């Protein structure tokens, strides 16, 4: 990592741009981000998906990695999916507006 310290707020701001396309809500407000670990040379993001068989799992992984890559202060990161605790709807932030972001356009 470069000499500028990174804080969790910067990471969270970037992760708010990662939208679950099935629900139209960012992964932070959905409660999918479990932990942000910041070490001397690496950021580890622990996150989950709504179900183990989630069809958007790979897409979300790629979008999370893009968000982390976009932060100048982060040179080394890992986006790590975890299954404990199991996600449930009670983890969604209060007053979330579903489909506030329309799903991505399908290619023809």
TrEMBL record:
Would you say which domain of life the source belongs to? Bacteria
| Membrane-spanning residues | none
**Where is the MIP18 family-like domain positioned along the sequence?**
9-79
Name of protein: MIP18 family-like domain-containing protein
Organism the protein comes from: Fodinibius salipaludis
Organismal lineage? Bacteria, Pseudomonadati, Balneolota, Balneolia, Balneolales
């Amino acid at each position: 990592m470069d000499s500028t310290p990174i804080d969790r707020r910067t990471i969270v701001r970037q992760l708010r741009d990662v939208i679950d396309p099935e629900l139209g809500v960012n992964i932070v407000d959905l409660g999918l981000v479990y932990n942000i670990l910041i070490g001397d040379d690496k950021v580890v993001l622990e996150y989950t998906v709504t179900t183990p068989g989630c069809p958007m799992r790979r897409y979300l992984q790629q979008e999370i990695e893009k968000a982390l890559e976009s932060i100048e202060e982060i040179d080394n990161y890992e986006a790590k999916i975890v299954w404990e605790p199991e996600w449930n709807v009670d983890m969604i932030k209060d007053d979330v507006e579903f489909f506030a972001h329309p799903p991505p356009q399908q290619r023809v």
